[in-house]
Specification:
globular; alpha/beta; single chain; 48% helix; 361 residues
Length: 361
Amino acid sequence: MHSPFPYDKLPQGSEFYGRRLELEQLERATLHSNNVLIHSKRRMGKSSLIRYFLESKKESALCIYVDIFDITSKEEFAKALLSALSNATKGDLKSTIKKLASLFKRVRVEPTIDPETLEYSLKPIVATLSFEEMMEDFFSSIRTITLQQKVIIAIDEFQQIASITDVRLDAILRKEIQERSNVSYLFAGSKRHLLTSLFEYKAPLYEMATHFELPALAFEEIEAYVIQYIDIPRDVLHYGCERCAFETKMMQNLFYLLWLRKEIPISREIVDEAIGEIINAKDASYRLLFDTLGNNQKSALKIVGKYKSGFFTQSVLNEYRIKKQTLQSSVDTLFKRELIDKEGDLYFIPDRTLELWVERL
């Protein structure tokens, strides 16, 4: 039987659950062609929410999803936009190519076939085009489409534009966003501090989007879905969610393992056993990561994992034989590497599985 708890891929159709209020917020924003910046802790389901929302809107709007996680140049960014637009509407191959040919001034597309699924996609041919020409083709096409149809453009891992230093992509986007009509932009990413800094005061995108912090899934929504597939007491389910710190991806992994054990009574001990299995599965990769740290950074990671806050006391410094200045410097380094995060006075490791692994140390 197909697992109802995907944890290593995006959920499809009925596998997606909860997020009713969040979907309503996105619906209201896009209805009036407003823009939204979605930020949260890691692994809380931002991409899943966006993809599900776009799927629900594809009958009433042209929905374009762009993941720019691996871009390293402005040209790759422009090509990613063009590729996403080219593949946003799939129908008859011949008519789709003809439609794109009428939209693009310089770009041409050619079909490619996935040898495993036998599904086709469209690849923009841009080798001879400059960045400026590609961007002009993309945005002129969007402006043409919006004369007849609403457009929603979702850019995932949006913080990656900050790594492109030879041009201000945020300034270019600001101009297009200011002059848009019948278009909504959804911005999201996993590096939330870098992401939100792109929309801070004096940044080109300041006030160009409504900030929307994605909370953890509500327990009632989790429970309503999980009990359809697993016979689990309410208090045990809540215990499991708390052990996962309500991190969506880890909870899905936990539920999958509990679903495999559904023939036996699910207790807290079974939950702990499953969580131990999740941690053990990542032990080798976490050890490799841990080995990249200096001794002071290793100590700082252990301290954050154990104490969370108030750890600059003399007793903690003595326990780990580290000076306050050295600990502060190591914490700053871990923060820059995004191995730790902070909310108010509380530090935490944003990867909950890694956090539990560190607690074992």
